[in-house]
């Protein structure tokens, strides 16, 4: 656990020019009964394309859990505001998975898809919840997949 905390602190202190920085805390392994605690850091760049209020951009994420499993990925992020202070977020990120003592996901290459909803709680700050799924898309014979639910605090810069 100390190793995970040290890695988390090191990654979160790297100076990066980003439009948003998000910290998450949650539970990993919702479907297999072997739950672990998890933390995540996600950086999102300024959107490169807008379709009305919908923003399309790139992002990168690191997820760590108490089983010492690590996933690092990057890909597309979509954010769509709705109502007064709400927004829906979605992303698809291919990444690299290093198994600790947790679930064998079958491959070092794992894809994470995520959907979440958040509410503005202060100027440029959102609090939200997301659910994600990691899978190797059957590039390996073993592909159990894994779900994660997280509470996120996100700040736009």
Secondary structure layout plus pairing:
Blueprint: H1 2-12, E1 20-28, E2 36-44, E3 49-51, E4 54-65, E5 70-82, E6 86-98, E7 109-122, E8 125-135, E9 146-156
Antiparallel strand pairs: 1-2, 1-9, 2-4, 3-4, 4-5, 5-6, 6-7, 7-8, 8-9
Description:
The protein is mainly beta and 157 residues long. The chain contains 1 helix and 9 strands, in the order H-E-E-E-E-E-E-E-E-E. The protein has one helix at 2-12; strands at residues 20-28, 36-44, 49-51, 54-65, 70-82, 86-98, 109-122, 125-135, 146-156. The chain has an 8-stranded antiparallel β-barrel. The radius of gyration is 15 Å and the shape is globular. The model is unreliable at 11-16 (pLDDT under 50).
Shape: globular
Per DSSP E runs of 2 or more residues, the count of β-strands stands at 9
Measured by DSSP, the beta-strand proportion falls in: over 45%
State the share of residues found in helices, binned by percent.
under 10%
> Helix tally?
1
Briefly characterize the structure.
The protein is mainly beta. The protein is built from one helix and nine strands; from the N terminus they run αβββββββββ. The protein has one helix at 2-12; strands at residues 20-28, 36-44, 49-51, 54-65, 70-82, 86-98, 109-122, 125-135, 146-156.
């Amino acid at each position: 656990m100390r190793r995970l905390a040290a890695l988390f602190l090191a990654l979160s202190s790297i100076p990066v020019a980003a439009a948003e920085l998000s910290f998450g805390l949650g539970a990993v392994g919702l479907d297999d009964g072997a739950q672990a605690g998890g933390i995540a850091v996600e950086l999102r760049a300024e959107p490169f394309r807008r379709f009305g209020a919908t923003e399309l951009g790139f992002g990168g994420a690191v997820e760590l859990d108490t089983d010492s499993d690590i996933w690092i990925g990057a890909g597309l992020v979509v954010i769509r505001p709705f109502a007064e202070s709400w927004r829906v977020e979605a992303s698809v990120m291919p990444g690299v998975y290093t198994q600790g003592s947790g679930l064998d996901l079958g491959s070092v290459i794992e894809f994470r898809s995520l959907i979440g909803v958040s509410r503005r709680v202060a100027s440029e700050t959102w609090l939200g919840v997301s659910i994600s799924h990691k899978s190797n898309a059957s590039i390996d014979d073993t592909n159990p997949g894994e779900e994660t639910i997280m509470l996120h605090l996100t700040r736009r810069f």
